[in-house]
C-alpha cells in the first residue's frame, strides 16, 4: 500500500468505535523520569511519600498519562492521518492512578465529525479516548477535537 | 521560615489573581525531545514539514506546553501547597504555537475555592492558568481543580 493510500482523511472518521490500541507498558523509571522533569510532586517520585498520599502508592503524573495517550493515538492512527492539529481538550478526567508496571490500553471512539465552517477544506473530528489498565479499570478519559484535512483537498490550509 | 510555616493550605487560596510565574525558556531541543517521545508529528519535529503546516513553523506539542505549565505551577506554588492531586481539567485551549526560544510566563488566578462535600478535611481550589510568550500572546489557557488539605487537618485523607 502506498503512503498516500494509507493516509486517513476526514471522510474516514465516522461516529462510533474507531479502535483499541496498545498495550503500552509503563515502568517506575518512566514515571519518575517524567515526574522529575515536569511534575516533581512526592506522590510521583517517592514510594514512601506516595503511600501516605491519597493515591496510596507511587503513581504517575496525570500529564504523563495524557502524554502516553497522545503517543498511543499517534501510533494507532494519528501518525497516518492528515491531521492539522488540535484546538484543545473539551474534557479531561483522571479517574484512577497510573501505577508502575501498568499495561495501558486505549479505546478510541469518534463522537462527532463535521466539516469546518471557517476552513471548509477541513473537518473537525471529536474523539473520546479512554486509557485503561490491564484489569480494565479506566484511568483517564478525554474528549478532544482534531482538525483533519478532507480527502482531495491538497491546497494550502490557513 | 520553617517548612511547616511555608506550606499553603486551602484557606490560603482566595478568588483573584494568585501570581505570575516564570519565565521558563524553551529550546528547539526541548521541543524535539518531548515530541520524539510523546508526540512525533512532523510539525513538532521537522522544520520543513512544520513550515508547510497550519502552524507555519516548528512548534511544540500542546502536551509539552501543558507539562511545562505543570512544572511552572509546581515551582510557583504547588510544591509548597498541601495538594492531594487533581481530578482532571475542566477546559484546555491551545491558542497559539509554542515556538523554539519562547520564554513562557504563567498567570494563575483562583476562580473558585470551596470545601469538599465528600472529604470535608479538604477543599477544591479551581485555577485558571494562562501561559504566554514574551510578546504577551496567550498560548494556552487551562481551568483545573486541585484538591487541597485544610489548615489544621492532619489526619489521613481517604
Descriptive notes:
The structure is a homodimer of 158-residue chains. Chain A is of the alpha+beta class and 158 residues long. Chain A has five helices and seven strands. Chain A is elongated, with a radius of gyration of 18 Å.
Q: How many E strands of chain A?
A: 7
Succession of helices and strands of chain A: HEHHHHEEEEEE
Portion in beta strands of chain A: 25-35%
Rough outline of chain A: elongated
Question: SSE layout and pairings?
Answer:
The structure is a homodimer of 158-residue chains.
Chain A: H1 3-6, E1 16-25, H2 28-38, H3 42-45, H4 47-51, H5 62-76, E2 83-85, E3 88-89, E4 91-94, E5 103-115, E6 122-132, E7 138-149
Keywords:
homodimer; 158 residues; alpha+beta; six-stranded antiparallel beta sheet; 7 strands
Write a compact overview of the structure shown.
The structure is a homodimer of 158-residue chains. Chain A has helices at 3-6, 28-38, 42-45, 47-51, 62-76; strands at 16-25, 83-85, 88-89, 91-94, 103-115, 122-132, 138-149. Chain A has 158 residues and is α+β, with helices and mostly antiparallel strands.
